[in-house]
Design goal:
- The chain is built from ten helices and eight strands.
- It is α/β, with parallel strands linked by helices.
- It has an eight-stranded parallel barrel, surrounded by six helices.
- The longest helix is centred in the C-terminal third of the chain and has 19 residues.
- The structure holds 1,3-dihydroxyacetonephosphate (13P).
- 1,3-dihydroxyacetonephosphate binds next to strand 8.
Length: 257
């Protein structure tokens, strides 16, 4: 495994709760905070993105802890007649520091294209938060040998010159690895992450090296260490395993040495 300069970037362990969580989940997040306080310090940032309904209560519980709160999506406009939508400034007002945009489930369930994802990411940045922009190929695209072409297209068209390593994180999530228990091999992950790094360097010059590139797709305590030590992997975007304090803490263990 090539050891690149990724250790200069502060890794991010991010939990995406998706459409899961009720008031009773506040106990789970308090348990996670306890585990983080009572274990060795981790050399990563820790983020939880609950559903909108839990953002304010999580923010209340997690104030002054090592866990930050984010959201899973937003509208690109600041406000107005958009029934059912939430704007980036509302999320910043609720205490969010990050917003995930362009998750494959949003791209497929809500037909979000790269242009929409870019507008959302810009809204997040304009509201003073950081955007986590997701990219990833489907199983069909991987089998057709189109992975890198798909990633390049998504990355180029979902990012804009307004973005920098300070306000934007990239998450590579192969769609076929999400919620399936199938994880990409370390070799496949490195191939895509190294490719994303090259594209970021091309587009953002020197600052390209500063962007964090997260891996997501069936990350578990058992595979976190090998995935997180791979070249150009600067953290994880975790779905299912972030719902349980023990499991998410087990993933964070990859950053306790
Ligand atoms: P799983 O960890 O459940 O595979 O989900 C990954 C994901 O989609 C995180 O955004």
């Amino acid at each position: 495994m090539s050891q690149d300069s990724n250790k200069k970037r502060t890794p991010l362990a991010a939990g995406n709760w998706k459409m899961n969580g009720l008031k009773e989940s506040i106990a789970e997040i308090a348990a996670l905070d306890g585990l983080i306080e009572n274990n060795l310090p981790a050399s990563c940032e820790i983020l939880i993105c609950p559903p909108f309904t839990l953002i304010m209560s999580f923010q209340h519980i997690l104030r002054d802890t090592k866990i930050t709160v984010g959201a899973q999506d937003c509208h690109w406009q600041e406000g107005g007649a958009h029934t059912g939508d939430i704007s980036a400034i509302m999320l910043a007002d609720a205490g969010c520091e990050y917003v995930i945009v362009g998750h494959s489930e949003r791209r497929s369930d809500h037909h979000e294209d790269n242009g929409t994802v870019m507008k959302k990411a810009e809204a997040v940045i304009n509201a003073g938060m950081k955007a986590i922009i997701c990219v990833g190929e489907s199983e069909k695209e991987r089998e057709a040998g189109a992975t890198l072409r798909i990633i390049e297209n998504q990355l180029k068209n979902s990012t804009s010159k307004a973005m920098s390593s300070e306000n934007t994180v990239i998450a590579y999530e192969p769609v076929w690895a999400i919620g399936t228990g199938k994880t990409a091999s370390v070799k496949d992950v490195e191939e895509v992450h190294n490719f994303i790094r090259m594209l970021l360097n091309e587009r953002f010059g020197e600052d390209g090296e500063g962007f964090r590139i997260l891996y997501g797709g069936s990350v578990k305590p058992a595979n976190a260490e090998s995935l997180m030590s791979a070249s150009n992997v600067d953290g994880a975007l975790v779905g299912g395993a972030s719902l349980k304090a023990d499991d998410f803490n087990g993933i964070i263990d990859a950053y306790r040495k």
